[in-house]
What does this fold into?
Amino acid sequence: MISPRRAAWAAALVCTTGTLTALAAVSVAAGQRQQETVTLKFGYVTTAVHPYGLTLAQFKRIVEERSGGDIRVNLLPSYAQANDIALLNDIRGGVVEGGAVSAAVWPAANIKTFIALQMPGLIDSYQLEQRVINNSSGIAQSMLRNGTQRAGLVGLGFLEGGMRQLALKRQITSLAQLRGLKIRSVESPHLKDALAALGTSPTPLPLGEVFTSLRTGTVDGMEANSALVFAQKFNEAGVSNMVVANLFPFPAVVVMGQQAFDRLTPAQQQIVRDAARDLPAFSISTLSDTSVFPTRLCTAGVRYQNLSASGRRAFLQRMRPVYAKYTKDRQTARYVAAIQKLKARIRGAQATDTPPAGCLLPQRVGG
It folds into this structure.
């Protein structure tokens, strides 16, 4: 017969053992939570060979290496059939954790902060753009703060996709010949207005619908860059002539949803932010050899034309109503002025597209 004292001791031992076992289980579970891999889904609208895709692949490498594999970045190219507005809405809604959303479409969310980046003819070189979108730039910091917080997002940085040119299905000799042409526009009010000021009939389309629209004749061309035409194979849909006009750059804003960002530990948040610091410089580095994408298009049969001096003057003259309309917004006017101040310090800016000599047509495009 077990004495009451021994029975009490045995009960206490069972209780203590159970407590220790429970504590050990909690400890193991906590360790498992600490080692659990976080997966971040990041969308973008181009294919992987475009500067957007190349730059986000670099971002993915840095994040995964510096986190020791605790953070995995799952890249989603051609997101939502290449629809930037759907991507922006899905990041805000928590469908994906983040992505690179083209600056052009943010007015769809009633955010005008990034319009100045694409005012026609303002940023016309990668040297200038590097100074504007670099994460240490006061302009970039202000834009990321003012633009993304209103949307419930965390702004990580910018990246560049390539200076926009006129990508057409036929050769022209003057800007006047653009009148009446159906030109694909991004779903963006200021870019649509810029194309309308050139006399075209702008046709807003998401990127995923452009190939078929070119092939069927729904549009006669588009504003694009050599990298985009190559990456999306628009030359196979009819684009045969590129007019190097440096209409505007095409940056994207790299963001995360606020809730998704808050679920990361402070150390993980810092890793993501640090990785984003390289995005502007790396994206522009993919474009710094201005012969790469034009050479690839040249091999595929695409030919290039430059604007003449009179053509450039005519282009800027036609953009005056666009400036008058959008600089009524005080924030846009301030950013435009700040960019113009930086631009005045740039001397001898390099070309943005340099095709092989045999692919550059001698006939320049006049006004």
